[in-house]
Amino acid sequence: MLLKIGELASRTGITVRTLHHYDKIGLLHPSARSAAAYRLYNRNDVAQLHRIQALRGLDLSLAEIAELLQGEGTGLQELIDQQVRGLEQQMLQTRELHRRLQSLSELLRSQDQPNLDYWLTTLSLMSSFGKYFSKSDLAILKQRKQSTQGNAELMMEPVIAAVRSLMDQGIASNDTRAVALSVRWHKIMNVAMAEDPRLFVKIEEMTRNELAVQALTGVDGGMLDYLTHATAEQRYQIYRKYLSPAELEHFRRRFFEDARAWIALFAAIRQQMELGNTVETVAVQDLLARWSTLSLRAWGDQASTLAKVRLAHENEAALSLGPGLSPELLAYVQQGLQYRDQISANNKKPDASDQPEQDTHHE
Q1: What single string gives the DSSP state of each residue in 79-131?
Q2: For the chain, how big is the Rg over CA atoms in Å?
Q3: Is the pLDDT assigned to residue 363 strictly greater than 50?
Q4: Do the beta carbons of residue 251 and residue 236 sit within 8 Å?
Q5: Poorest-confidence range of 66-70, 85-89, 172-176, 332-336?
Q6: Spatial strand order in the sheet of 39-41
Q7: Confidence (pLDDT) at 360
Q8: Measuring CA to CA, which of 68, 150, 151, 214 is 20 to 30 A from 2?
Q9: Choice among 26-30, 106-110, 213-217 with the minimum mean pLDDT
């Protein structure tokens, strides 16, 4: 039985125009033509058309379908795998869009008719968060926000405004007002960031790099530096109860220069702790080597000075107020440093084989 093009179109639901196009590009030629030159399709042509439609259902292009049909199915697995990966990516993008729209909807409900600039800045901010934070990071931040009912953000707004006011007035970062604000800043950040130094590292990088974040929060790199100097002063006032002026001579400058390196180190150590790695592992010992280097820059190599620093940290909870230096992390580090010292001491012990042999020969 031969079908004219109109009959084939009506039976399959495919337009005549589409069948003409398939013929033109060589995807489906009619097997015969009538005396009047009408296209005629036989059973094999209909079967081929069904194969084409099945492959179209996989969202393959006509060119890909033509290659598959000409090759009798070779490469089908690879193409299907590509389609699966593409669909997975689309699903991820759809979920991300859904998350952003949900967040924006919640934000809009909490605001009184925000203007277009605010909407656009907010959307840009949401995009910035996606660049720096993983899904698990964002889940932690959202959970913290819900658990505090958004109080951290509300508490931070007047702190940011007060810090900006001091900066605009030219008030030095070692002023008691700046120091007090830095303490409030760190307390609020600890709540919002779950005291996780890995989140501190990311939030600081984002704040320094993203104009949308700076526009919406009022915090920029200059303010972060100002707060770091103020934090150095807060630490200095505590350490001076334990250390001599000579021992503290370079502290303020070193604290500012190495502040970001310390936070990054806290983050890396926290990661090792969560992985369950013991202090004896190579990765942890490599991090502790960096710790020793930074400590040497801050305090020198005098054992008496380092002992005073340890005593200060044992007695002064305020020294753990910064981004991520929790008592648990400090205890982990001290355990690792003790192991490091033990290994170093063992390596310095002379080997028995290196001892000179006693002369047992008697005249």
Answers
A1: HHHHHHHHHHHHHHHHHHHHHHHHHHHHHHHTSSS--HHHHHHHHHHHHHHHH
A2: 34
A3: no
A4: yes
A5: 85-89
A6: 3-4, 39-41, 32-33
A7: 39
A8: 68
A9: 106-110
Q: Exposed/middle/buried for 12, CB within 10 Å: 0-12, 13-18, 19+?
A: middle
Lowest mean pLDDT across 25-39, 96-110, 232-246: 96-110
**Per DSSP, which regions of the chain are E strands?**
3-4, 32-33, 39-41
Length in residues, the chain = 363
User: Counting beta carbons within 10 angstroms of the beta carbon of residue 200, is it exposed (0 to 12), middle (13 to 18) or buried (19 or more)?
Assistant: buried
CATH number of 3-70: 1.10.1660.10
Residue 175 has phi, psi (to 5 degrees) of -65, 145
What mean pLDDT comes out for the span 14-41? 90
Q: What is the mean pLDDT of the chain?
A: 83
Give the model confidence (pLDDT) of 106-165 as tens digits.
Answer: 666 665 555 555 555 555 666 777 788 887 887 888 787 777 666 777 888 899 999 999
Angle at the Cα of 242 from the Cα atoms of 312 and 266, rounded to 5 degrees: 35
pLDDT digits (tens, 9 = 90+) for 246-305: 999 888 888 889 999 999 999 999 999 999 999 999 999 999 999 999 999 888 888 899
The one-letter code for the residue type at 284 is V
pLDDT given at position 133: 83
d(CA 237, CA 318): 11
| Cα gap 202→206, rounded to integer Å | 6
According to DSSP, the residues that pair with 39 across neighbouring strands are 33
217 Cβ contact partners less than 8 Å away, ≥ 6 residues apart? 160, 207
The torsion angles phi and psi of 342, rounded to 5 degrees, stand at -65, -45
Q: Where are the domains of the chain?
A: 3-70, 114-347
Asked if 325 and 263 count as a contact pair (C-beta separation under 8 A), the reply is: no
Rounded to an integer, what distance in angstroms lies between the CA atom of residue 193 and that of residue 144?
7
In angstroms, the CA 247 to CA 2 distance is 100
Lookup: tokens for 149: 């009912």
